[in-house]
Amino acid sequence: MTVKEICKKIQLDEKLCEKALAWASENESFCRKFMPLLLKGKSNFALNLNGIQKLALTLSCLPSVYQAYAKKGINEKIFTDTFSDIKIWCDNAFEQYGEEGLVNIHWIAKHLSMKIFRIGRLQYEFSRFLILPHAKLKDVLKCPYKLGEKCITLHIPQGEKLDTDKCLSSLQEANAFFEKHYPDYKYRCYTVITWLVNPDLQTVLGDDSNIVKFGKLFNILGYVPDSDMNERRIFGYKKDRENYSPQNALQAYTLSRIQKKLPLYSYNGYRTK
Ligand SMILES: CC(C)(COP(=O)(O)OP(=O)(O)OC[C@H]1O[C@@H](n2cnc3c(N)ncnc32)[C@H](O)[C@@H]1OP(=O)(O)O)[C@@H](O)C(=O)NCCC(=O)NCCS
User: Whose CA is nearest to atom 33 of ligand 1?
Assistant: First the structure.
């Protein structure tokens, strides 16, 4: 599959794609030099590149990742879904920095090096079991997993509702995916680090909320103050506090904590495979 065909499949803006590909073809030797690093998940070299240059390098890597997926027998839908994240992060770059292209290449390098896959609603990353540094701990003695043991960390991409049935099928598919394609990777649980599993949200959003139902899929191990992440995910990147006007109970709760200078947290959770 050509890179243009891939861009179409992942629904990347056509003009953005053309701009990045034009830069890649004018700077072919630069791309050829740095692609191997990106394919290994390394992106520090790209710190000073602009969004179009980062996107150009990323797109240049896609045909070889496509082949690597095919070689491992991973189906094309997982490839397309995984790399649809490029569009999400190009949109975020524009919203956050007004920058065209991709800023968060550090994140997409994980996809390019096949450390993250999107399987249905959720994303899955090879990782190690950890407790967030300086976390306030909760029920640690009940946790059957050891620090540092292999696990898979879940991520929750923006862009669609967090339907519980979709999350559960995603988890089931993930079990089958890792068993089939990575049989030597023995892991016992999924972990998550997110604002979404905040137990206080049950009172705010009620039992029918997708977020609350998602939270119930995990045991919580610890939590750390992370007001910035909460605010960004709930009010967007602009941080235009004077003009916040809550549209729902989640925003009202978040704003009231910000105004009272009370912290909002990220939670460290786990779920048995
Ligand atoms: C995860 C996500 C899809 C959940 O949305 P959802 O399926 O609508 O969740 P719920 O049904 O529980 O939503 C309850 C209410 O809160 C609102 N809400 C949910 N997430 C919201 C968010 N991030 N910002 C503002 N409002 C939000 C919903 O619109 C709904 O409002 P309503 O009662 O007026 O209809 C959404 O929060 C999102 O896109 N987040 C961005 C991705 C993210 O944060 N990932 C984790 C990074 S650590």
Answer: 248
At 162-221, the pLDDT tens digits run 999 999 999 999 999 999 999 999 999 999 999 999 999 999 999 999 999 999 999 999
Answer whether 194 contacts ligand 1 (Cβ < 6 A): yes
The number of angstroms, rounded, from the C-alpha of 16 to the middle of its chain's C-alpha atoms is 22
133/31 Cα distance (integer angstroms): 37
Cβ atoms 151, 188 nearer than 8 A: yes
Q: Is 197 in the pocket of ligand 1 (CB under 6 A)?
A: no
Closest protein CA for atom 22 of ligand 1:
234
Give 259: exposed, middle or buried? Use CB within 10 Å, 0-12, 13-18, 19+. Answer: exposed
Q: Which of 155, 209, 251 to mutate to test the pocket of ligand 1 (most atoms within 8 A of CB)?
A: 209
Domain that holds residue 13: 1-114
For residue 102, the 8-state DSSP code is: -
Q: Quote the number of domains for the chain.
A: 1
**Which single residue is written with the structure tokens 């953005």?**
16
**pTM higher than the cut 0.85:** yes
